[in-house]
Amino acid sequence: YQRRVHGLGVSGNVTLGKRRVKEGRPTNGIGLFNMPYTTTAEEFTAILNEHPGFSNYKFVTFPDGSFKGIAFAYFDTVENASAARDALQGLVIGTQNVDVKFAARMVDFGPASI
Predict the structure, then answer these.
(1) Residue 92 pLDDT more than 70?
(2) Which of 32, 34, 87, 96 counts the highest number of beta carbons within 10 A?
């Protein structure tokens, strides 16, 4: 993010980098941040399908529909989301280190059908 700085008669914008958000309590969702904009849904689901209980996902997009590098994956239980989060620490896609954290909210997909 950028911040306006003033000092010694000079002012300008300074880029300070991405704002880090503190991780909250465990939920049944995980957020994956700093993914390459070129990541496809197929690539993303291939990574998440390796983890038990993966049930749904959401890509965050710009107004034009292009991928913003942020996605959320949801699991059937908090325990499965926690195991996936732990397993995905250190994930690299292309040349980018992906930041994996718990999603801020629980998502209820209703009762499972068998």
Answers:
(1) yes
(2) 32
